[in-house]
Amino acid sequence: MLDIARQSHPEVEAVYVDTGLEYPEIRDFVKTKENVTWLKPELSFYEVIKKYGYPIISKEVSRDIAVARRKPDGKTADKFNPDSDYCKKYGMQWCLNKWDFLKDSDIPISNQCCNIMKKRPAKKYKKETNKKAILATMTCESRERKQNWLKSGCNAFDNNDPQSQPMSFWTEQDVLQYLITYKIPYASIYGNIIKNSKGKLETTGAERTGCMFCCYGIQCEKEPNRFQKMKVTHPKQYDYCIHKLGIGKILDFIGVKY
């Protein structure tokens, strides 16, 4: 996104929220770019999970677990009951009964991590500077992003928070092909870009990075998953994550190897 934007506007500012959760290779790569404003969240990840809870399964599931716990007789709690009117009306594909054991556990769970560590610093900066964001989010990354795009399109200029998301309809294959075609440098954590046996482009290193210690989507990953890879490539961060932050206990509870 930055490469595309700076082709027509070389002076465009980049903003990086340094949460402390990124792979060191990502932070090092950002340092190679000019005109980057670094932002910091008010709380560390350790403080966030202690105060609000762990990000588990997905943003939607962790949000609904937190809400259902606060209001066990509310509408959100019905999502976890397959016999509820909600599940009968919208179908079992929207039923969260499979995560009922998490809702009933003593594990603190919340979707506040992203809001506090990423969105809040960015929102504060936009308010202080009156600048609007150009984001590289893609609809293929989550159902929530797809739904938001269907409502607002690529350019949500009339929203309360005006922003542009011109890569919304891109796929990961598009991104990898763009990097190859135009010889764009990228962070070393991803390794090389190759074609697999099915003719699809893939990276030899990390497929995705994001926050190192996040559990969102981990239950869907094939082995070696992100934590198993981290154990080999970043043993210091792995030890801190699994033991200091308590992620190991979370993964044990949901049956994910690490």
Low-confidence stretches: none
Looking at the structure, what is the overall shape? globular
Give the class from helix and strand content and strand pairing. Answer: mainly alpha
Order of strands, main sheet, comes to: 4-6-5
Q: Estimate the mean pLDDT confidence.
A: 95
Give the DSSP E fraction (strand runs of 2 or more residues).
5-15%
Fraction in helix: 40-55%
What is the gyration radius calculated from CA atoms? 20 Å
**N- and C-termini, Cα separation:** 33 Å
- SSE series: HEHEHEHHHHEHEEHEEEHHH
Q: In this structure, how is the largest beta sheet organized?
A: 3 strands, mixed
- For the secondary structure, the number of strands is 9
How many helical stretches? 12
Short précis:
It is built from twelve helices and nine strands.
Structure description:
With 258 residues, the chain is mainly alpha-helical. Among the domains are: 56-103, no CATH class; 212-258, no CATH class. Helices cover 41% and strands 9% of the residues. It is built from twelve helices and nine strands. It has helices at 2-8, 24-30, 45-51, 59-70, 85-90, 100-103, 112-129, 143-152, 172-181, 226-233, 235-244, 247-254, and strands at residues 14-17, 36-39, 56-57, 133-134, 155-156, 163-164, 193-195, 201-203, 215-216. The strands form four sheets. The protein has a three-stranded mixed β-sheet, with no helix packed on it. α2 (24-30) links the parallel β1 and β2 (36-39). α10 (226-233) packs across α11 (235-244). The longest helix has 18 residues, at 112-129. The two termini are 33 Å apart.
